[in-house]
Amino acid sequence: MKATTIEGYYKRKHPLFWRYYGMLARCYNPKNQDWKHYGGRGIKVVQEWRGKKGFETFVKDMGPCPEGYTLNRINNNRWYSPKNCEWASLHVQSINRRNSRNTSGYVGVSMHKANNRWMAYIDLERKEEGKKNRKYLGYFDNLADAIEARRAAEPVTNNQRST
């Protein structure tokens, strides 16, 4: 039996194989350490990225991964799919993470208890290792205005550039 190749690579030697395998493990293997954050809360992988031709379709849909980037779900409450996935820097991923620590449910937006108003901020990337550059965007009387200010301050992602 002849081994099939994808873009000239044997499947397990392809640069994207272990990223693909990790995605499936997070969603379908309850023994995976991150399963509770993915499959345990209903995150799955679209059918066309699973099965016999799944990896090949994933590679075709996602294209090559730029150095230093990882697989990112744009909406963390939706499945892995071509429309909801992109290659993103760790900085963009940190902006897109779920937030379980504040009551707003949005990264960079929280209630400022001292003045009972919504506060918006963004952590900017810095070249110096381990240092944050937090930019405060203001205080707002309603949550929607604070969220809008936060979204307007976010960097443009790969998907936003291509649309």
Describe the structure.
The protein has 163 residues and is an alpha+beta fold. The chain is built from 5 helices and 7 strands. It has helices at 17-28, 54-62, 90-95, 143-153, 158-162; strands at 5-6, 9-10, 70-73, 85-88, 109-112, 117-124, 133-140. The strands form 3 sheets. It has a 3-stranded antiparallel β-sheet with strand order 5-6-7, covered by helices on one side. The protein has a two-stranded antiparallel ribbon with strand order 1-2. Strands 3-4 form a two-stranded antiparallel sheet.
Percentage of residues in helical conformation: 25-40%
From the N-terminal CA to the C-terminal CA, the straight-line distance is 43 Å
Alpha plus pi helix count = 5
- Element pattern in H and E: EEHHEEHEEEHH
Calculate the mean pLDDT score and round it: 81
Give the biggest beta sheet.
Answer: 3 strands, antiparallel
Rg result: 19 Å
DSSP strand tally: 7
